[in-house]
User: What shape does this take?
Amino acid sequence: MLHVKSFAFNPFSENTYVIYNDEKDAFLIDPGNMPEAETETLNDFIKINELKIRNILLTHAHIDHIIGLQWAYDAFSVPVLIHPDEMQILDRASFTAKNYGFFFPAFKGKLQHLKEGETLTLGSETIEIYDVPGHSPGSVAFYNQNNGFVISGDALFMMSIGRTDLYKGDYDQLISSIKTKLLTLPDHTKVYSGHGETTSIGFEKEYNPFLK
Assistant: This one.
């Protein structure tokens, strides 16, 4: 069984996730922890639960989802998994941070590329990778069928979708990604988004005004 723990971090209220199994193997997804207090909160949860972080996963590399990336890499010494099309966004992180008024050094660490069709495993649990570009060129979602959830990044939100006015955003591509990938999942699938509340595929099919 997989467990999902979420944290709302940084001024953008970004959702950072830790997913883990009963054997305490874990993935850290989109570490957005910014001030020291947030980092302590995240680190304490991992330590108290004796979790072993196996990889750091990125749904995408917008600045709010990677503010804590260097800390996480240094703390756990595991590769960061990112879609190759998202490297251009990661490479712009220092520039983007400057536009928001803070300093963010370029990430230094081991990166591995992931793409649709590949799977990740935590013990006996399998996590499928879905390409969902549009909010950013290399956005991905992580789907676990057995426990019925998908971590959608900033592709799909409760009653909304990701913005597409940022660098390399594409509205039509995003709508296509959602309809051809995420909405094909079972209606009961929980959607853990990059911001805001948890929703479900069935709810978004019925009520999301952007998907009519």
